[in-house]
Amino acid sequence: MSSGGRGSALAQPLQSPSAGRVAALLGLVVLGVVVGVAGALVQAGWFPGGLLLALAGAAGLFLGGARAVLSRSGAVAPAFGWVVAVIFLTASRPEGDFLFGAGVGSYLFLLGGMALAVICATMGLGRQPHADGARLGK
User: Fold this and answer.
1) b/e map of 79-98 (b: 16 or more CB within 10 Å)?
2) Distance CA 46, CA 55 (A)
């Protein structure tokens, strides 16, 4: 299986990403932060429905990012922003204030969101051979 006579895709030299790809990934990181903060507020407001809504929004962003960028990095970038925002919101302040309570919903949001990030990054599009080189007898 060759890709255009140049050998395997894994044997090709690494190239730096384009400016558009870097901008898209940075935008996905910012969207991950926004979805993490919004999910943290929504999941505590309406317990069963808010938790499902927050996790569905996170999963949609992770999988949509992978589809938009056409690589797994599109799922990893918003997942990174989501995790950073959620971990930052779980830390308590010196005054004793915190956003997350020690309830079942908070733990389900944290662990469920991390599991969704791993699942969506795994399901993301990997490197695939071009359609021309994948068929025999051409």
Assistant:
1) bbbbbebbeebeeeeeeeee
2) 13
Cα distances (Å, whole numbers) of residue 9 to 97, 127, 128: 51, 8, 9
Q: What is the pTM (predicted TM-score) of this model?
A: 0.76
Instruction: Answer yes or no: are the C-beta atoms of 57 and 38 closer than 8 Å.
Output: yes
> CA-CA distance, 69 to 28, in Å (whole number)?
10
Residue 18 token pair = 């384009």
Q: What is the dihedral of CA 106, 31, 33, 61, to 10 degrees?
A: 30
Q: For residues 136 and 76, what is the distance between their CA atoms, to the nearest angstrom?
A: 34
From residue 104, alpha-carbon distances to 45, 51, 83 in Å are: 13, 10, 18
For residues 28 and 20, is the Cβ–Cβ distance under 8 A?
Answer: no
Query: 100-137, pLDDT tens digit by residue?
Result: 666 777 888 888 999 998 988 887 665 555 555 555 55
